[in-house]
Amino acid sequence: MSALVLASKSAARAAMLQAAGITVALAPADIDERAFDEAWSREGHGPDVVARLLAEEKARAVSRTHPGAVVIGADQTLALGPRRFSKPADVAEARANLATLRGETHHLHSGVALVRDGETLFATVSSAAMAMRAFSDAFLDAYIERQGGRVLSSVGCYQLEGEGIQLFERIDGDYFTILGMPLLPLLSALRHHGLVAS
Prior knowledge:
Blueprint: E1 4-6, H1 11-19, E2 25-26, H2 33-42, H3 47-63, E3 70-80, E4 83-85, H4 91-101, E5 105-116, E6 119-132, H5 137-147, E7 168-172, H6 175-179, H7 183-192
């Protein structure tokens, strides 16, 4: 059975797999996500397709240094209508992004891919609609202060498994997709390829 490698430094993704009984080695991909995102966006790809393509690109990059291993790549994009968001560069940008998203429904798109020796075995994307409540400036400022650097670790500036849940009034989508990886389709693909017990 092939070794499994997660091409990510995301603690949430690693924890998801570990909780599901999947043992992976961690090998974060070193790619310029923004450059790929911008290039594919110029080509007309929507944020959902970009999430899947980024997942594949991450897995391919790590696959080059892990011959024979099956590499799991994952990525997430966020869009509010036609506007796309990236991970904030600093706390001020995180605050501005959250101020823009409040009172609106944005969409998270989580892509996942399996790659072995440069060949894509599986790739898919799952989406969730996230309706933020119209919280006050005072709440926003207090939230940013309590979260500190954690607001920089995700594209939406929140962790749904933590205090970030307080930003929302309604969510339509799979919990694992929101955390950053469509886990059920991934597990199905791992079983299909004989990489975990079926």
